[in-house]
């Protein structure tokens, strides 16, 4: 797997692309959790959002690795 992605002559790490994809996935998930009232059960919302983002990032990386392997 390549370590960087060429974007008009600028080399961008693939991890940065995966991080953007995970963030774009986390936005609707957080809105859904807020709409259902799930955050009332959470002690520290920013910490929970960070943990959710890390889990989604790991899922995106695992999915891309599985697809490309």
Automatic annotation (TrEMBL):
The chain crosses the membrane at residues 7-27, 47-68. InterPro entries: DUF1656 (IPR012451). The keyword Membrane applies. Keywords: Cell membrane, Membrane, Transmembrane, Transmembrane helix. This is DUF1656 domain-containing protein. It comes from Methylobacterium brachiatum.
């Amino acid at each position: 797997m390549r370590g960087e992605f060429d974007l008009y002559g600028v080399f961008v790490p693939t991890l940065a692309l995966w991080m953007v994809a995970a963030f774009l996935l986390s936005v609707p998930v957080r809105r859904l959790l807020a709409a259902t009232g799930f955050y009332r059960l959470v002690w520290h919302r920013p910490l929970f959002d960070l943990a959710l983002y890390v889990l989604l990032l790991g899922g995106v990386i695992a999915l891309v690795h599985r697809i490309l392997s």
